[in-house]
Design a protein that fits this description.
single chain, about 425 residues
Amino acid sequence: MYDKKLAHWDDIDKIRADFPLLQNADVDYLDNSATSQKPQCVIDKEKEYYEQYNANPFRGLYEISVRATDEYEAARQTVADFINANEADEIVFTRNATESLNLAAYSAGDMLVNEGDEIITSVVEHHSNFLPWKALAKRKGAELKFAEPEADGKFDPEKIRAMLTPKTKIVALTAMSNIFGSVNDMKTIAKYVHKNGSILVVDGAQSVPHVKTDVQDMDCDLLAFSGHKMLGPMGIGVLYGKKELLEKMPPFLTGGEMIDMVTLEKTIYAPVPHKFEAGTVNAAAAIGFAEAIRYLQKVGLDRIEAREEMLTERLVKGMQQIPHVIVLGSEDPADHHGICAFKIEGVHPHDVSTILDTDKIAVRAGHHCAQPLHKYLGIPSTTRASLMFYNTEEEVDRFLASVKTIRGEMGYED
């Protein structure tokens, strides 16, 4: 259970004042799994880059280019420390988690997978951790195998273990479902995967912003996540990889800045992580992302987890008490980690979202980039409310009150 001293903040209004959109827009923002809001310090940090040292990192010996390089590499170290990577060189900056997973599939996948081999993913995955492996299997003539969730939305590590064979080269699974909100036991799965001689690729896009992530303890081989879901700018993502694996992987893109030497006859690539960062990097976003991490650390990850657990319990329990509402995943609110995907009997999710919008409540409706999971569940689409620590009890209560009216507004007499 959450610690009430951590979860109930006397200064939540002060925290919310750090986020311009929460002050400027007339909306209860409950679509945080799609993207989070940005504190003023992150906006200011990006602005600082463009106003004070806007130069191309690595390409100039003059003062502001050197500063841009230093700030960019400092951001890499900040990310490495946040997830407890062994060293900063294990952090590759990308555009987003989607690009990170594609990098993993094209680079590690092409290196490891041959015709007749196997790749394991699941029906739960976001398209970003589904389509790259589907494409790899087709490209290589490999077999793609799909793990299924338990009733609470989690993977049973023993069932994953049973799927492994000598032909299994890659296992790619989400650490936290963007539909169920459930957190998977990736540490145990990693043990089974490695004992089998395979590698584990983890989609951490939903988990890294909400639960403490220690890649050394988890022992994953590759981990993908995005800055924009954890208070950072859009356009910046991360692929963490064990350095020994990254050094073996071929580059995903080739061009400027990812080389050590090029002649007409020969190319020597730069060391990791730079061999994976071709072209001009998104320095402003990386620097802004590091500022977002510092903000999260200042607020306190324990406080954040406790508050989100409290808000989630309030939301999920409230939804479970409303007739004709079905919440996907575990019956235990503690398993949802800020995510509540649901359906209302007889009402299309788009209508649910539209009605909530008239009450100034922002949620997402559709398949949430998880069409295979919706098909598996026999539900074409759902509505999803998702929380962040800056949300309030009052916002949750207004959401619940609005949901209670929806069937009536659609003409049902309950």
